[in-house]
Design a protein that fits this description.
By secondary structure, this protein is α+β, with helices and mostly antiparallel strands. About 45% of the residues lie in helices and about 10% in strands. Among the domains are: about 90 residues, no CATH class; about 120 residues, Chitinase A, domain 3 (Roll).
């Protein structure tokens, strides 16, 4: 918890800032009976300012979620110090009449409207219902998003591939492709896919498992690999597929879908957000807003700086003998996988 916590309190706990300080209760009369425990005890007091437990805990709840766990635990005393400083500053400001400052009044009005708006938003949100039929329709309409394929693959990586294995013979692109084609012919002819994957695949992780990639959904593999895997039927061995990693032979073992029960919370959340957005947009449209187009016009584009005049290239003496120096060859760019390595 940083010392800037006080700024958070000033922004989010303003109603508590301007609440009247609660006077300290008179000391109880001396009796022989044990005093009844105070259900809402004073937890901080200073210079006539008292903070009761309920008030302090209410202030804690105004903090952002990422601060609350600390402020309610090891940082509770530090938060109390920050809160007390804020209350002391507010008391001094009240004495100076700062509550009547136009700037403060405007801020208070804005904060009041914001709090009321937030309460109304919660009310609208709580009134939104999502039916089973709506969830089922969203699940059916988005069936592609929940498709999964279970597959194995063998990868043959040419020289320069991110998947190329150290210590293995380096293959040119043509050699890698030819090797992958030959392995596919062996598999189609009856060779054991898993054994070949363990022996030949340059994807060391899946290769040790006989090429097993498990199940994956759309967007988890590079596009070329994904397209081939999802297009293949169960039991198919795809034609050799080229990606930035090399050449793949893919065997599809299953086509599945994520069960509705597993994705229902996400679907319900998305549907509720869509309905809430629609309700807010309808409210705005029904109010027939009018904007000052001149005031809200986009700023003009910055002027384009004049390009510097081209410097003429120096003339080359064609009579001079040619240099024997070899031309510098640019290093090949290394491909970076955009997504999960298959």
């Amino acid at each position: 918890m940083k010392k800037s916590t006080i700024l958070i309190i000033l922004a989010l706990a303003a109603p508590a800032v301007f609440a009247q300080s609660t006077p300290a209760p008179a000391p109880p009369a001396t009796t022989t009976a044990a005093p009844a425990p105070d259900a809402d005890p004073i937890v901080v007091s200073a210079s006539g300012i008292t903070v009761r437990k309920s008030e302090f805990e209410a202030a804690l709840k105004t903090l952002p979620a990422e601060y609350q766990s600390y402020a309610q635990g090891p940082g509770k005393k530090q938060f109390a110090d920050d809160y007390l400083r804020m209350r002391l500053l507010a008391a001094e400001g009240m004495k100076a009449g700062m509550q009547n400052s136009p700037e403060v009044v405007n801020q208070l009005n804005l904060m009041r409207e914001n709090l009321v708006a937030t309460a109304q938003l919660k009310k609208i949100d709580s009134g939104i219902t999502i039916t089973d039929a709506e969830v089922q329709k969203a699940y059916t309409d988005g069936a592609k998003d929940y498709e999964q394929v279970k597959a194995r693959h063998i990868l043959i990586a040419p020289k320069g591939s991110p998947a190329a294995q150290t210590g293995k013979k380096e293959l040119s692109d043509d050699e890698a492709k030819a090797k992958a084609e030959d392995l596919r012919k062996q598999i189609v002819a009856g060779a054991n896919f898993e054994e070949l994957a363990k022996k030949e695949s340059d994807d060391a992780g899946s290769g040790a498992r006989g090429g097993d990639l498990g199940s994956f959904a759309h967007g988890q593999m590079v596009p070329e690999f994904e397209a081939a895997a999802f297009a293949a039927k169960i039991g198919d061995v795809t034609p050799v597929v080229k990606t930035q990693f090399g050449y793949h032979i893919i065997k599809v073992e299953a086509h599945d879908s994520t069960p509705l029960a597993q994705v229902r919370p996400t679907i319900e959340k998305n549907l509720k957000q869509s309905k809430l957005h629609a309700a807010l947009e309808a409210m705005r449209e029904s109010a027939h807003p009018v904007y000052d187009e001149k005031y809200f016009a986009p700023p003009p584009a910055p002027p384009v700086a004049n390009a510097p005049a081209a410097t003429p290239a120096p003339k080359v003496d064609t009579a001079a003998p040619k240099s024997d120096a070899k031309k510098e060859t640019a290093a090949p760019k290394k491909d970076t996988p955009a997504k999960k390595k298959p």
